[in-house]
What we know:
By secondary structure, this protein is of the alpha/beta class. It has helices at 4-11, 53-63, 76-83, 155-162, 188-199, and strands at 17-21, 43-48, 67-70, 88-95, 113-118, 144-146, 170-173, 180-182, 185-186. Helix content is 23%, strand content 20%.
Amino acid sequence: MKYPENITEISALQPDYLGFIFWEKSKRNMTLDSIPELHETTKKVGVFVDASIQEIAAKINQYQLDIIQLHGNESFIICENVKKLGVEVIKVFSMDSTFNFSKLKEYVFAVDYFLFDTKGKLPGGNGITFDWTILENYHFNVPYFLSGGIGTTEIDGLKKLLKSPAANKCYGIDVNSRFEKKLGIKNKIKLQKFKKLLYEI
Length: 201
């Protein structure tokens, strides 16, 4: 999220989380001095890429962030130090067919959630999905967010996945680029449709 009116509009849908990117190289980089008031049940997620602890702490204080999503090459030690700032931590890993889930072991006690995104040219927002069957190889107890190019065309696949053992630890669905009118502006109608379709039996 990036623009005040759009933030307020999408917050009215009562999402569990809204993400704000704090990475200058991103075209969705957050430049507002403050975030408009959100629905009381919506948590603010700050997204960072290899930022310093000092920078993350400053943004937490400025924007009253609830959760920090680490989207770079952060070590488990960095994750532990971010948790000490009094926030929850999501560590992102980029998925492809060769991903080795054993690399997550050292992060298990350092994070609250994992987020599995598609491996692409950018740290995120590439607009493409990965092969979700590889999630059958995930055996840790840390809950995860599913991300990467998810849109309304993935509804049937999502429903199938969520009924499978691979989704036992799936905590939430992260959407972004497939719901944009243009960079940083989310389409409320498309999001409403997605939510309705996903929850249909």
